Amino acid sequence: MKQFGYTILEDRSIDIDRNDQRIREFLSLNDPSINACIGCGSCTATCTAGHFVDFNIRRVHTFLRRGEAHLLKEEIQKCMFCGKCQLICPRGVNMRNLIISINSAIERMG
Amino acid sequence: MINFNLFILPFFLGLIYLIVVVARSWYQWIKALPPIDKVKLASGLRNPKQIVTILYEIFMEGLIHRRMWKRNPLMGYMHMTFALGWFLLIVMGNLESRIYSGTHLNAPYYPIFLKFFIHDKLVLFFETYTVPAFFRFMMDFLLLFILSGLALAIIKRQYSKWFGIKRSPEHHFTDTIALICLWLIFPLRLFAESYTAGFFDGGGSFMTQPLGNFLVRITPIPADYMAYILWWAYSLALGLFFIMLPYSRYMHIPSELLLIIFRRCNIQPKKWFSSFSDVELHSCSRCGICIDTCQLNEAGITNSQAVYFIRAMRDQFVREEIALNCMLCGRCQEACPVKIKTDSLRLIKRREFSASHVSRFSYLEDGTPLQREVVYFAGCMSHLIPSVTNAMTGILSKAGISYVFLDKDRSVCCGRPLILDGKNKQANELVEFNKLLIRQTRAKLFVTSCPICYRVFREEYNLPIHIQHHSQFLLDLVKTGKIPLQSSLKRVVYHDPCDLGRGCEVYDAPRELLGKIAELVPNEEEKQNALCCGGSLAILSSSQQQRDIVTKEALKILLKDEPDILATACPLCKKTFAKQSKVKVMDLAELIHASIPIPVNAI
Predict the structure, then answer these.
(1) Domain annotation covers residue A25
(2) Measuring CA to CA, which residue among B183, B177, B190 is closest to residue B150?
(3) Residues of A in Cβ contact (< 8 Å) with B545
């Protein structure tokens, strides 16, 4: 590619070789509601923890879809489980169960 | 005459086995109690008054089955015949046997098989005025009493709807064997006694004697052979039942006795799995009353009800899904005839499942809240419904109260949602954070709009200030005349939020408050039996669609009398109902705020 003068920006690309879909597959089996997400961002707008710290459930979804499992672990530790996101979600995504399942999935993968 | 025959062996060995196993369980449970509970138990058992209350409760619950009667009279009668009937049969049999043995100490099998050994032909069956005949009459009567219960039990298995039972629990193999043995015991006894009485032409009473005479006439094989076979079968059924008892649901019989003693000695359930919890698990008779009260049935979830969860926990094999699929609304706990704290047991299991989960709340920064008399804490859910917080702040300022709105801009969760997921350690971080904030306000009164918060503030925070839900607070304001109210002619039905009602037993304050401003319509499922709105934070693995069904069914019952307004005192209930309700759903605070006729300045 280089000879054509293109450069690859690391943070703008999705590396298919490193794309780890295992968590997403585990979640899809465990709680299919995750697939209903349309990325509207209502969850993030209402998030209790999000008022204090840079925490974004929509971004968690993005990480999941991109298979960036290594970024998930730290992110979900900020969640307070208050459930506002779940109540506000127009698609009925089981947000709290999702965070718990991500935790379980990470544990299983070691 | 030597009162012994080989056929008593199955019964005798079974009985010894049962006594050994039960004694070992009791010993282990008592031994595993924390030292403080052991002291409570010892001092409780030394107090004669306490012993009387324990014996009374054992009689009322263990034998009469009072709570079962209240719940369902037919079920109550059925359980009473087996428990009280069998108990009296043992007592009577024992007394009867003493007439013939002339001693106080008999071999334990002697009263059980008395009719095989003794054929008292001197008294005719219709005579009841001599002592032996009285006993004979009583023994037949009690057997008939038990058989009437057995008939009900058999009918119930086939036509449970006649008993008002929609769903019965599905039993395990061991339970089925124990059940068959139990059902066989009494008919076998009847036939064994009848054949013996018929063969010897005497020794029976109003039931066994005529039946025996009839049976002897129609049976082709000799009656003494027939009787002997039946005595063997009777003994085998008893023995097998005793051996199966510790591994089946019938273990609830000895366990419940200990549970009553524990409770009466003021031994409390713990947050972790303790011997109290183990006794609770074994005290579940799997009667299935919890199944019918569970609203999840409507949503097609039929494997996680309390009876199945407790069985799985007793078998030490709980699937995570079963532990998580529960709204923790507490309806089953209210209905349980043994009063097993099913919610606490489920939380214990959830804690085990989420033990390794990590949360970090180090990002929370301490603030410096204003110092006021009253703290108002809306709670996360109330922030989703600004009309509730607006109504509350409106009322507070109209009543002229100096308050601080603690979570106005940046609310921190109270910690209960984490506790419901079994993450107590993480919840504790939030609890400590909030505690510090509240202490800094130096307030004397803490008011919250959310029953979920209210419960955790009461149970976990140990704050030195008075904690009120806004329904109680508003009632106080109205009673002290700080806010005048104008009554309307609207018909209002009140929905008890689970955490406020069953959780904190606040039933009357909201009703009294509503009574002042509108006509309160009663509902068939209210107070302790109130329905869950379906929005519970405690249920994790069910889908939104399933929860919506629960809401829909709850609304059907709540709105049966076509009220003008559906009132509730919980922002989560309001939000959940509002999605589907055709009738306007309002929080108490909103209703009160709307009923204040003119702005009142500080009094």
Answers:
(1) no
(2) B183
(3) 92
Domain assignment present for residue A98? The answer is yes
Q: C-alpha angle B530/B386/B475, rounded to 5°?
A: 55
With an 8 Å Cβ cutoff, are A82 and B413 in contact?
yes
pTM confidence score: 0.91
CA dist B88 and B139 (Å) reads 9
Predicted confidence at residue B602, as pLDDT, reads: 47
Q: B-chain residues within 8 Å CB-CB of A105?
A: none
Say which residues have a Cβ less than 8 Å from residue B502's Cβ, sequence separation at least 6: B329, B330, B331, B333, B334, B496, B528, B530
| Maximum mean pLDDT: which of B34-38, B99-103, B131-135, B597-601 | B34-38
Contact A83 B537 (CB under 8 A): yes
Encoded tokens for B218: 């129609």
Rounded Cα–Cα distance for residues A87 and A100 (Å): 17
Q: Is residue A53 part of a domain?
A: yes
CA distance B343 to B327: 9
Domain count, chain A: 1
Q: What residue numbers bound the domain in which A53 lies?
A: 37-109
As for the ipTM of the complex, it is 0.88
Q: Mutate which of A35, A43, A100, A107 to test chain B, going by most B C-beta atoms within 10 A?
A: A100
Average pLDDT over residues B1-27: 91
- CB-based contacts of A43, cutoff 8 Å, min separation 6: A57, A58, A85, A86, A88, A89, A93, A95
A71 falls within a domain: yes
d(CA B576, CA B553) in angstroms, rounded, equals 13
Contacts of A72 in chain B (CB under 8 A): none
Q: Given a cut of 90, is residue B43 above it in pLDDT?
A: yes
Q: Which two tokens stand for residue A65?
A: 């879809």
Chain B 339-368, CB below 8 Å of chain A: which residues? 354, 356-361, 363-365
Q: Report residue B356's pLDDT band, with 50, 70 and 90 as the boundaries.
A: confident
Angle at B329 between CA B77 and CA B523, to 5 degrees: 70
